[in-house]
Design a protein that fits this description.
There is one protein chain. It is rod-shaped, with a radius of gyration of 28 Å. By secondary structure, the protein is mainly alpha-helical. It has 3 helices and no strands. The protein is 81% helix and 0% strand. The two termini are 21 Å apart. Helix 1 packs antiparallel against helix 2. The longest helix is centred in the first third of the chain and has 59 residues.
Length: 133
């Protein structure tokens, strides 16, 4: 069994520190780019939800308009209960808004992580953790 002591960052030789620094930078850049990619994907999905809500509203307006025209032309009978549509749409909006809030929280976490990498705070936290092992 190897009896070598695990060394802290400060105990490493300069060339060992350099290698560790390069690997740390590579990992941070990889994380940075992954976070940016997924932040973009989350933002795009949030936009899709907003478009979905708008499209749903436009569909409902068209539906009532056509329904009214069909009644006026006496092509159909019966009254349409708009309250059912309102309840359904309110429920849909609640669900979609809840999903958008969750996505917004995820996006905010990506924003924080990206800022930490850009500012050097993430790297410093890793170095600090390496020194306390």
């Amino acid at each position: 069994m190897n009896e070598d002591k695990i060394r802290t960052y400060d105990e490493l030789e300069d060339d060992e520190k350099e290698v560790l620094d390069v690997f740390r930078q590579m990992k941070l850049m990889s994380d940075y780019n992954r976070f940016k990619l997924y932040k973009f994907k989350v933002e795009d999905l949030i936009k899709d939800y907003e478009q979905l809500k708008q499209l749903r509203e436009e569909i409902q307006v068209k539906y009532f308009s056509i329904y009214d025209e069909l009644q006026t032309e006496e092509l159909i009978e019966g009254e349409l209960d708009a309250s059912d549509w309102g309840i359904t749409r309110d429920h849909e909006n609640e669900v979609w808004d809840s999903e958008v809030r969750l996505l917004s929280d995820i996006k905010a976490n990506f924003d924080i992580a990206i800022k930490m990498i850009e500012s050097g705070e993430a790297e410093q936290s890793i170095i600090d953790a390496e020194n306390f092992k």
